[in-house]
Write a structure and sequence with these properties.
three-stranded antiparallel β-sheet, elongated, 41% helix, 9 strands, alpha/beta, 2 domains
Length: 259
C-alpha cells in the first residue's frame, strides 16, 4: 500500500486557496542527485565537505576558477542523465489546482523549471545558466546534448570554460560568500512574508538558512497550515503542524491527489 495522508490533513488541504512550497536537495534524491547536508550527502564527511565548500566559494572562483569548476564538474557528473522525478511533477499538478502557488527552491539542478513549475524562485540560481565574468554575456547550457561534452572537457583538462572574449565563464549560481540576488529576495518577501500562503510545505531541506526557515515559522505563527516532508528531524520539525516522514515523491503525489 502506498503512502496515505492523514485524513485531517487531506481535509485541510482541500480548503486551501494558496500554497507555498520550499524545497531542498532531498527532493532531487529520487532522481539520483546526491544531497548536501543530509546523511550521506556531499558535505556529510566534514573534511571532504569543507574542501568542497572552499572550492565552491566566491574567493576560489575569483582566484582559482579551475578548482571551482572541477568541483562543479564532479557534482554535475554525479547527476549525469538525471531527470525530474515524481515529486517535481506533483508540484506542477499542485500549482494547477490552486489559485496562487509559489515555489522557493535552494536547488540549482533546474528540475523544477524542467518539470514545468511556473512561479519559481530559484534563490541560489541554476547551474545550467551561464555568465561570463568579464563581458557579462549570458548563456543557457541545456542538459542535452551540450552539457556532457562540456563537463567531460572540464574533467579531462581541469580547466574552467572560457568565453569568446577570453573571460572565465561561471554558472549563474550563488557561491559560498556571495550575496543572494536582490530581486529574488524581494520576491521571497512578497510571496511568503507579505502574502502568507494558506499552506506552507517544506520538502527535503535540512533548514540551515534563516531565509528557508522563516517562511515556515511565519506561517505557523499566523495560524496557517504547515507541513514538513523529510525522513529526518530538522530545526522546524517541532513547529510544523504535520511532519511527514515519507519520500518526497510519495507525499507530494498524495497531496496533489487530495486537492
Amino acid at each position: 500500500m502506498g503512502f496515505v495522508l492523514p485524513a485531517e490533513l487531506a481535509t485541510r488541504l482541500r480548503a486551501a486557496r494558496s500554497i507555498g512550497v520550499i524545497t531542498g536537495a532531498g527532493i532531487s534524491a529520487e532522481s539520483g542527485i546526491p544531497t548536501y547536508r543530509g546523511k550521506g550527502g556531499i558535505y556529510d564527511d566534514p573534511e571532504q565537505g569543507d574542501r568542497t565548500i572552499e572550492a565552491l566559494s566566491a574567493p576560489t572562483l575569483r582566484t582559482d576558477p579551475d578548482r571551482a569548476w572541477q568541483a562543479i564538474a564532479k557534482i554535475a557528473g554525479a547527476a549525469s542523465g538525471a531527470q525530474p522525478n515524481a515529486a517535481h511533477h506533483a508540484l506542477v499538478e499542485i500549482e494547477r489546482k490552486v489559485e496562487r502557488f509559489v515555489l522557493l527552491t535552494q536547488n540549482v539542478d533546474g528540475f523544477h523549471a524542467a518539470a514545468g513549475t511556473r512561479n519559481l524562485i530559484d534563490i541560489h540560481g541554476d547551474t545550467f545558466k551561464l555568465l561570463c565574468m568579464k563581458c557579462g554575456r549570458r548563456g543557457d547550457l541545456s542538459r542535452e546534448p551540450d552539457i556532457e561534452p562540456c563537463i567531460q572537457t572540464i574533467v579531462a583538462t581541469g580547466k574552467a570554460p572560457r568565453c569568446e572574449c577570453g573571460g572565465t565563464i561561471r554558472p549563474d549560481v550563488v557561491f559560498f560568500g556571495e550575496m543572494l540576488p536582490e530581486a529574488k529576495v524581494q520576491r521571497l518577501h512578497d510571496e511568503f512574508y507579505h502574502r502568507v500562503p494558506d499552506v506552507v510545505i517544506s520538502v527535503g531541506t535540512s533548514n540551515m538558512f534563516p531565509y528557508i526557515v522563516q517562511p515556515v515559522l511565519i506561517a505557523a505563527q499566523q495560524g496557517r497550515l504547515t507541513v514538513e516532508i523529510n525522513p529526518e528531524e530538522t530545526e522546524i520539525s517541532g513547529y510544523v503542524a504535520y511532519h511527514l516522514k515519507a519520500k518526497a515523491g510519495e507525499a507530494l503525489t498524495a497531496i496533489a491527489a487530495a486537492l
